[in-house]
Amino acid sequence: MGQALHYYDALKQFIEARRQQSGLAEKILIQVGSATCEKAAGSDLVMKEFQKLIRASGRDDILIKQTGCTGRCAREPIVGVFFPGQIPIKYERVTIDRVQTIFQEHILQGITVPEFVLDKKTDKRYDYVITVCSSEKCRHTKADPEKMIMDALVKEGVPDGTVRIFGGGCFGLCANDQAGKQQVMMVFPERVIYTFETDEQLEEIIHSHFSQKQIHSKYLTQADFITEQFFSMYGDVSFFNKQTRLTLRNSGLIDPESLVDYVMNKGYEGLAKVLEKDDPSWVIDEILKSGLRGRGGGGFPTGEKWKNAITYTNDPTKYVVCNADEGDPGAFMDRSALEGDPFIILEGMTIGAFAIGARRGFIYVRAEYPLAIERLEKAIAKARENNLLGENIMNSGFDFDIEIRLGAGAFVCGEETALMLSIEGKRGQPRLRPPYPTQSGLWGHPTVINNVETWANVPTIILYGAEWFSRIGTAKSKGTKVFALAGKVRNTGLVEVPMGTTLKEIIFDIGGGIPENRKLKAVQTGGPSGGCIPIDKLDTPVDYDELAKLGSIMGSGGMIVLDESDCMVQTAKFFLEFTQSESCGKCVPCREGTLRMLEILERIVSGNGQMDDITKLERLSRMIQKASLCGLGMTAPNPVMSALENFREEFIIHITEKRCPSHRCAQLIRYEIIEEKCTGCTLCARRCPATCITGRPRQVHFIDQKACIKCGECFNVCKFDAVFKI
Amino acid sequence: MSDHTKLDSEIIKFIDECREKEHADSYLIAVLHKIQGKYGYLSDVHMHEVAQRLQVPSSTVSGVATFYHFFRLQPKGKYHISLCLGTACFVKGADKILEAFRSELGIELGETTSDKLFSLECSRCLGVCALAPVVTINDQVYSKVSPTQAAELINKARFEEAA
Amino acid sequence: MKHANIYIDNEKLSVPESMTIMEAAETIGIRIPRLCYHPQLSIEGACRVCIVQVEGSNKYMTSCSAKVWEGMRVKTNSPEIRQARRDIVELIIDNHPMECQTCERDGNCELQNLAYSQGVRDRLFEGKRKLHPLESSSASVIRNAEKCVLCRRCVRVCAEIQGIHNLSQLHRGFNTVVSPAFEAGMADSVCINCGQCINVCPTAAFLEKPHTERIWRALENPDLFVIAHIAPAIRAAIGEGFNLPPGTPCTGQTVTALRRLGFDAVFDTNFGADLTIVEEANELVHRLEKNENLPLLTSCSPGWIKFMEHFYPELIPHASTCKSPMQMLSTLLKTYYAEKKGIDPQNIYVVGVMPCVAKKFEIERPEQQSPEGYPYTDAVVTTRELIWMIKAYGIDFTRLPESDFDHPLGYSTGAADLFGTTGGVMEAALRTAAEKLTGKPLTELNFEDVRQVEGLKEATIQVGKLSLNVAVANGLTNAKIILEKVKAGEKQYHLIELMACPGGCIGGGGQPYPPDGYYVLDPEINKLRAKALYNIDQAKSIRKSHENPYILKLYEEFLKEPGSHKAHELLHTTYTPREPKGIK
User: Fold this and answer.
1) Which of C171, C172, C180 has the CB atom closest to B59's CB atom?
2) Which tens digits make up the pLDDT trace of A686-702?
3) Which residues of C are the active-site residues?
4) pTM for this model (two decimals)
């Protein structure tokens, strides 16, 4: 046995022994979400309140710990309650008042508080929960799996109300040739996974498990189930069970500051394997074979990037960099990942460093993410203490260390050459490529830059193999992708889905559709570098190439849902305003061109547009796309171009009719009073800040359009719907 | 009250440590973060001292400090209001919140009120989009803020100051 | 060298693989339009004017940076690329003041030429324009940020060639502005006034502070006796302003032109140069004898002097205390000459015609004023300004007859002419010092070892029994290298000539913008200008400063001997450390 595995086993044994000693398995565990978003929602207070109550109760069998964010930001703070051997219960929007109730009723008396349960799915406590794979891509093609199981349970005579069944996302268990033939399900609280092909087999399992109370070992799947932990905690929540959590699998489950938790969840096993094998080219091969592509935007094959760093140079000094300068407005998955599971990034980078022969790594993280920085600092310190960073890692002879470098509020620093200059302490202005960072990067040395999500995939690929990883996803886009779902959607938050999941599934099955019964209009992906995908293309599977075909990009994973009340000209203008204000100012097309485009859009939304403005927008866009120096500039016109392509009519209405169909452009809105409906109550006239509404009591009122400031107050206050917005 | 003309000894120590390291000049941004953390903003005097101590041209220090929007070149107000104008916040009406702060305080973005009590700034996305619109005042995050609530926050601060 | 077969606009050519598309195109006579590119500076790739289409790439490539590869097919002039290029130039114009007719650079502005050649005849995207106040705190250099196109040539020349790092881009995006640190005025910065930013600027974002208006007024004033004296580098470059090939010597025409402009007397700064050599050689001999403050650092370049005060104040004791030739001559004009002519020095108005903008600062230095408080030099015009004055007067320069300088301060030796080029002060000083040290006449006057210095050169010159370790540096990045060596003390240097500008004064910040076929800082131009000066030297019968009969007379009548009390009072000066301190 080699040094690294030996070291790892010793570490694991040590941790396990400590866990046994603490008697953790017999204790009640309260887990409080603790990420920036959770804290913003008040999780610190919740934590304190629980601690107070535990102290007051005098019980020593109740533990409390923090965990990262699960991505259900709108329902935060989220609190999990674990009774040994029972199905965990998650509570949403836990305020101090709720803490009292949860503690009194659930913790002390063992009675779930149904009205606080996350998504209110579990109004009753079931004895069993079955999560069954219902992934459209690979589930059993013959039947509706949920119904199939329900039928079998009824047939077996299992009492109604004892088992709850959920359709879940891809488990990542089936080989490609098995897809469509077999069915996978997981049964809680035993946490066992069964694989079956026929109704008869299913019946056999049900009989054994539910009637004889015996796990049926014949159909038991022994495969190492990576998302088991996550499903066991969240598999009963529809928001989660359609997801496939690879990179976020520990977020919301483990204490992000605990190396013990990480290691107990297979942390550092991948690195041990790599160091044991001691073959950098094997690592690069695995990453190549896995088909992993950069999650930061462009989708460049990660393995190829690593290979380039060792192919064209024999420079002994090399660097690896983690790009955590997540700057797309609307994207927050990197923050969540760093806050929820910092060790996985460190492990990924260490593996990458070993593969290319780097001895130093940098994590470039936004200064706006103080908690992520703090957690990373703690994780780095703990990794160093435990010989997982620094000299002679895991006694393997490999030296590598990581330093954190802070960004300072410049979106463009997400561009790799700008990022490197920023690490060097300079203005973050992109430089010409070639040379590419893998040829000449930090201080002129070969440098591999990958983003947070990309690095987070690495340990998993090493652990479970390239072949396993490449089963998930589509032909050219492998694995999963995390999206930050926001905008006009019920369940906002982070979702991780296999590549190839359709936009429709994400928005409706996971996102829960559009609130307030409004109509979906478009989905914006890729942030300021992406575009709007119209409603008729919602069946598009999410993958690099499909999105590119629609004039958008995967980007880092922002996904903004727009409904009928959103104006596409305004939306395009919003994104352009962003890129324009974030332009570094180096090259002419981006610095000057984006401002001119913005001026044109401002003309259009204020009713001063001309028809040739559209031609000018397109002419500038094409030039900027092809002539800019860096990726930010090249993609800056995308939101405008895609809006023009898919919603051209809306632009034309703004220009020719001086009207905004979504009533979003303030200067194009007009308020008028409908004579038939006006009762002359005078309320609008009294509330109008511009005193531009006239009319005697009980007579029809009028709005002086010239004086109107379009604040909308009359529209809001009228009790008779007599004010009409045009 | 710290001496505002010379850098604090802790920061000088940090700079000296950086000078010992490889690529000392690459720690410029880290040094500026430290100074802003201590004094709330970067004064010309301090930046000049950084240039000398770190042996980086003043023009580079100045170029870097003005490039990154996280760095403030003017002192903050006692209540530093930072308004997120990210996509989600925009969609949820951050522009109206901005308007509310503007009219309540009578200052524009990037400015500080004459009584040095309030400063107003917009930030890039804070990454808590689901709670949009988001406002942070000093280190406290306020989520799902409405224009009325924005005005209330100001009045509350004014009230506390008067008390 | 591996070659690549490529096609440019369907023409097949084979060029070394290390070439860029722009260089390859030039070999077949295609000059791709460009703006931020400068062959002496690092590649910026920011203006995007030099974009071309390359088959297989859906983005345009900047020809200044993209290297050729085997089988590459390039289009430099498709309708698409021409429209894109035109639009890019328009975008620059749209953010530029439209005041070409009233601009100093009307007629020789690179942006104006581009707008014309790229066919920007209408403004499709006109909108908001950046607004910045004119910054004129400096005695030498004016900064007009509104005219800046952000090509960063000035930033690069200031950092890469001069090692000053005074300029940086501040802020970002549309608000980007080039400025000294903290948006300080140039006067409050480490700017050394070399004026290379003016030289490389494609527009009028940097200009010298004009002295023409005050000269016109002086010439009008009947009470004033107005004198001009011209630096050696002027005669080798002024012709370029009148379409004469670079390196055409125009001493006589310049003297005539100055008389036509109304100057009462025209002298030669060369006389000051001869005097400088005599004083400086004396200083060197003394230091060698006492073995103190060696190496001696020359002091005729006011840009270098200010550089030393900001960046190397610890080396001040090493600098020669000799005033520059201009200041020596101006001082004599208001003392020796005034006395001789019986004119009240207060009524003498001295104009230096210089290739240098730092001279404008030099004349304002407090230590360079007379004890009575008046300046020895009242105004300095650059070569460029004089060219304009001659044109403004309607003088047809090329058809002017030649005439001689006035006497007695108009005679100079060949050694003085060399001051205009890098290595020249060294050579002139060696001619005099060698004879002083050995007491024997030199047989070989040309010191080839210190000629045509491209940046930095060291040599050991055998003078009798002495081995003199000398060095010549031009461009302050080179100066830094040699000064660091001096400080490290690895070797004992005896004499170092330092010139702020690349190539010496002939490459000064006040020299004409380059004629067609040359670029700014083009070493080829400097070679031609230097050659003119070497030829003048070669043709003179007296080529050693200490043999100048008028210098000998001056000592006899007025100064007594080199290094005398009077010489020190009038011809020597002092230096002081300056804030802000420069970063080495």
Assistant:
1) C180
2) 887 778 899 999 999 99
3) 280, 283, 300, 320, 359, 362, 367, 505
4) 0.90
